Amino acid sequence: FLFLFNLRTALISITAIPLSLLAAVIALDRMGISLNTLTLGGLAIAIGEVVDDAIIDVENIFRRLRENAAAGFPRSRFQVVLDASLEVRGAVVYATFVVVLVFLPVLGMTGVEGRLFAPLGLAYVLAVIASLGVALTLTPALAFFLLARGGEEYGETRFLRALRSAYVRLLRFLTGHRAAVALFTAAVCLGAAALLTQFGGEFLPEFREGHLIVHAALAPGTSIEESVRVGSRIAGDLLKLPFVASVAQQAGRAERFEDTWGPEYSEIHVKFKPLSGREAALAEEQLRRVLSGFPGIHFAVYPYLAERIDEVISGVMAEVVVKIFDDDLARLDQTSRRVLSLVKSVPGAADVQLESPPEAPLLRVDLRPERLAQLGFQPVEVLEAIQTAYQGAVVAQTFDGNRAFPVAVILDPDLRRDPELVGSLLVSNAGGVRAPLHALADVSLGSGRYSILHEAARRRQAVTANVRGRDVQSFVAELRRRLDREVKLPPDCTIQVGGAEEAFARAHSNLLVHSSIVGVAILVLLSIVFRNLRNLLLVLANLPFAFAGGVAAAYFAGARVSVGTMVGFVTLFGITMRNSMMLITHFDHLVRHEGVTWGPGGMLRGASERLAPVLMTAAVTALGLLPMALGSGEPGREIEGPMAIVILGGLATSTVLNLTVLPAWALRFGRFGGPAEN
Q: By CB distance 3.0 to 4.6 Å, which of 114, 223, 508, 670 could disulfide with 110?
């Protein structure tokens, strides 16, 4: 409305948004995909493209109606609307194809990143395709019924006239200073490349969902009763924090549970009251300070969703996992301790611990063969007695009606912990001779291994860690360097560093490979559209400037390179190429179909005619993305926020270049004209 000062044009353009999004939602529902944070994010990002299709059509129809009215209505309004719609039809269709192609690498992502971003990409693509359908059918019909009226309604607004006048003067100035413009553009792109080296990398940003899991590991061998008692003390202190809503402890494990930890291990679920992103970060720091008041307990704190993602990625609940493989247990323990010490010394390391402690307290029973022979006992008779004491044995049955219940005997749990009491356990042999256990074996307290981890048919140990105060990518890079330099591995011993950084590298590699393949397809499509290498390169020339804007926005917003920001750049490149295509195809249309001579005058006319739709599209896209960008650290927006920041920054710089530098380059390098073609 601000640009065209016509409520009917605004109504037609706005109508495209709910219709396109509704069509996309229906398609998602038919495919069995629900509305969630990610699909809604995809629909929100697509709003700019959805409105752009309608704006291009409506603005062109409105401008052609204005020109027809100024010429005294030489053609019927229906013919004007039809011709104006067909004029931009090909460009809109091809531009939409480019946007869909650009997003195919996102749909092809695998693993955790694929599960997260494929629904977002699918929602985006469906919304763009639905928008194309609305622009091809409903928008021209609405334009005919609502706009094909009296000529007095087609006048250009004073605001738009002033804007065009200032824009034309700016273009004339820039055209006369091409060298300075080229140097400035190159400097901006080089500056962005320099900024890119300052970025850290991470698989996914930190989640602020308000549900933390605290892993608490007491000394190996701690009883379940002691774990519950300590957990109750921890829960009591946490509940005193004003932002904590509830605390629940899970101590030990169920008998048939898939994990293998002992009773000394607990998971404490802490749920916060509704907090903002910044408040949640401060709350987590305060929670960690409370936990530091419990010495001798190893704590690790994770957001619930992040912990589940880390476990899926590496099988271990930690951001960084260093796996050590060796078939010799003694060497494996020695190497693991060296790696543990090294990981703790790397800046940013937190919650560092061994996945499986090499030693745990145990009660040792060493049989004495000479005593067994003297007293006439077989080793199996002693072992069966010990098994009965610790595991129990069924000795009879009792009946209640027609139901039978087994009767078992087992040593009292309190008696099992005392070596002297265990040593006094009486053992019987086949001849009826009874002797105390200490007469047949040495009973003592000791330590030993209770769990041996295996992977790929090899024994392994793992050092796990989280990262605080720096990005995961730089942390892992420093860790790898120091492992190579400071840890000398014995023969047949290998080290493997994995976790979130490994998943990030895999996602980055897959996205680059798929993008390269799609890039070839886009070049083929653009060559079909333009049939001119120079014009094709002009469309691509805007990409570095868009990239520079995205990098600058991410840098100054404090974002890191993650899968989310990479998807944001993919989206940005699609939007940028679309806008450049619309400008270059409009130049070509003026020369081919309207007989305009290509030169400064033709360039100024084509660029000024595209000014309003470009600015309208950029404004609508920015307004749609601004809430996500401003709330990028808020719960539920951790993934879409960095995407929105990248798109907004790149959209700003690419729009500036599209309106200023690209027309000047088109005047210098573009080749337009030839016979009119359909």
A: 114
